[in-house]
Amino acid sequence: MTDTRTAAQTFVPESEVKRFSPTWFGDLAIRYAMVIVMVLIIAFFLYRSARFGTVDNLQTILVAAAPFALIALGQTLVILTGGIDLSVGSVIAASAVFGSLTAKAFPDHIWLAIVAGVVVGFIAGAINGFVVSVIKVPPFIATLGMLTLASGVAYVAGNGAPITGLPADFSRIANAQFGGLTLPVILMIVGILGLAIIMRRTTWGMRVYAIGGNPIAAGIAGINVGRTIFSVYAISGMLAGISGVMLASRVTLGAPNLGVGYELDAIAAVVIGGASLLGGRGSIWGTALGLLLIQTLNNGLDILTVPAYWQKVIKGVLIVAAVAVDVWATRRRSR
User: What angle (nearest 5°) sits at the alpha carbon of residue 290, between those of residues 285 and 293?
Assistant: First the structure.
C-alpha cells in the first residue's frame, strides 16, 4: 500500500512532462513572439528616452494608430478570406475629399459630411466585393484597379487640389473628447472589441474563417461564399471611409493624396499580427498588437530622431521576420 501511494505521488503524467519541456517553451516563445518583441521594444525606448513613457506620448501613439486601426481591421477580414485589399489608401483619399466637399456645401449639417465619406467608402468596397465575388476577378487585380480609380476620382472631385476652407465644426469631429479620449481612439477601441467578439462569437465570423481555410468545402457545407466575400470588402471600404473623414477632420484638409501608402501599413499590421496571407488564420487581437507595435516603433524612432529612411528599413526587416517566423512555425507544426 505504501509503495503504491509513493508511486502515485511521484508519477508525472506524460502531458505534464511535455508541457515543461524545451520544445514546449520553444513553441510558447514562437506563439507569443510579437508580444515578446513588443515588450523588448517598449523596454528599449523607455531606457533611451524618459519622454517615451509619458501619458502624453501614449495618447500620441493611440491618436496616430486610430486611422490605421480602422483600415487594418477591414484588411484583417479580407485577408482571412484569402483576399487582399490594396485600395484602402485611395478610398481614404476619396472619402476625405467628398466629406470635405460636403462639409463646405452644408456647414450647418456637419453630420452629412460624415455620411458622405462613409457612403463613398462603402460604395468603393461594395464594387470591390462585387468584382471579386461575382465576376471572379482576383482580389489583387480588382483592388489594384480600385486603388487607381479611387485616387483618380479624388483628384477629379477636388480639381487636382486639396479642399481647404473647411468649417470649424468639421475639425472638431476628430478632436472631440469623451472621457479623456478623442473620438478616433474611441472608434478604434470599439472597432477592435466589436469585431473581436463578432469573429469569435457569431456564425458570420466562423464563415469568414471557413472560406479562408477552404472555400470549396465552405460552399459544400452550405455557406454562401460569394455573399460573405462581398460583405468583407464592403466593410473594409466602409471602415476606410470612416478613417478618411477622421483624417480630413484632424488636418482640416481634404487632400486627394491623404491616404497614400496606408494600405501597406495596414497589411503589415495584419501580417505582423500573425495572419496568414493564404487566409483562414489570424485574429483581430493579433492585428491590434501588430498595429500598436508598428506605431510604437514609429513613435520611438521619431523621439530618437532616427531618419525616416532607416525607419522604413527597420519596419521592412520586421515584416519579413514576422512572415519567416510564421512560415517556420507552420512547417514545424505540420511535422
Answer: 125
